[in-house]
Design goal:
The protein is an alpha+beta fold. Helices cover 41% and strands 26% of the residues. The structure holds zinc ion.
């Protein structure tokens, strides 16, 4: 009985660790793109997932929603 309980706890711990690692990997995969606004020319720092270059962002200066190129 005790062993079963211990095994279940261990399995849950491993799963939590795996999930934490996965979240960390996703975070590290994020990249920052410097996007120039097509309307006012302001530079915007845009957070994008790894490998993604076309990301929607809102210009911090004029508020125009656009996609990075
Ligand atoms: Zn703008």
């Amino acid at each position: 009985m005790v062993d079963k309980q211990a095994m279940r706890e261990e399995a849950e711990r491993l799963m939590r660790e795996a999930m934490a690692k996965k979240n960390l990997t996703v975070k590290q995969g994020d990249t920052r793109i410097m996007a120039t606004c097509g309307k006012c020319g302001a530079e915007n720092k845009v957070k994008a997932p790894r490998g993604e270059t076309r990301v929607k962002f809102t210009c911090k200066e004029c508020g125009v929603v656009q996609t990075t190129i």
